[in-house]
Design goal:
It contains two helices and 19 strands. It is an alpha+beta fold and 252 residues long. Strands 2-1-10-8-9 form a five-stranded mixed beta sheet.
Length: 252
């Protein structure tokens, strides 16, 4: 009997490992829940959506020549394992006709590089580039190498020059009363993720620009979505405001 114990233990360990691998594989298959924003030239918001980032095959294109006429892609697809920032962008583009094509080049040893999303393209010979931030922090590696975790907020923005513009955020109540004023607050995040209040920002429905503390007063007559803007900075995500139990279409 004693000789049977190691075999039973080994079998139990093998079963536990198999179950663990099965659970992990299932989680990977379902994807990692993240929020993805895509902002084009002149601060135009191209997409804001939540998705489950998964292993994704990203196309490369010979037309991705923004880094030089000899730096276009091979045209061969590249599979990005797991949830990555570039993979999540590719998923957004795949499901949004107006954002196609995604122009990616594989001409560099360091990884994949982006030239364009739909009609928003990096112009050769300029300082423009696609800027990547995750949870308000700039990334020092390419989007194909940035691994995502559940709840991450991913921002892809076409910046016209360097240093990159700050990113705005808008803090507002989710519910309000029609015709009654309520307070919102605007912040900006720099490349390191440092936050500060923004003076002079405009907010949808606000009576005036934000003060030195980033605050402004808003009055709405119907449910809507608020956006904060300030000069050449990256506009804030849209914030849905519900009135009297009614919310904007698609609001979560």
């Amino acid at each position: 009997m004693p000789r049977l114990i190691p075999f039973r233990l080994a079998a139990a360990c093998a079963l536990a490992l198999a179950l663990s691998l099965s659970i992990t594989a299932s989680a990977v298959a379902k994807g990692v829940p993240v929020d993805v924003r895509v902002v084009g030239a002149a601060g135009k918001v191209l997409s804001e959506r939540s998705l489950r980032a998964t292993t994704t095959t990203v196309p490369t294109s010979p037309k991705a020549t923004c880094f030089g006429s000899d730096k276009g892609g091979t045209g061969k697809p590249v599979t990005l394992q797991g949830a990555t920032a570039l993979g999540a962008l590719s998923q957004v583009v795949d499901s949004t006709r107006g954002l196609r094509p995604l122009l990616v080049t594989d001409a560099f040893d360091f990884g994949l590089a982006i030239c364009g999303v739909g009609g928003d393209v990096v112009r050769s010979g300029t300082e423009s580039s696609w800027y990547l931030k995750v949870n308000h922090r700039a990334q020092s590696v390419g989007g194909d190498q940035v691994k995502l975790r559940a709840g991450d907020e991913v921002l892809w923005a076409l910046a016209s020059s360097y240093p990159y513009p700050d990113e705005l955020s808008l803090s507002a109540p989710r519910t309000a009363k029609a015709g009654r004023p309520f307070t919102v607050r605007v912040f900006s995040y720099d490349e390191t993720g440092k936050r500060k209040p923004v003076a002079g920002a405009t907010v949808t429905g606000a009576e005036g620009p934000t003060g030195s503390d980033g605050r402004a007063t808003v009055v709405l007559s119907k449910p809507g979505r608020l956006v904060a803007r300030h000069g050449g900075e990256i506009p804030s995500p849209r914030v849905a405001i519900c009135l009297g139990g009614k919310c904007p279409a698609g609001a979560r």
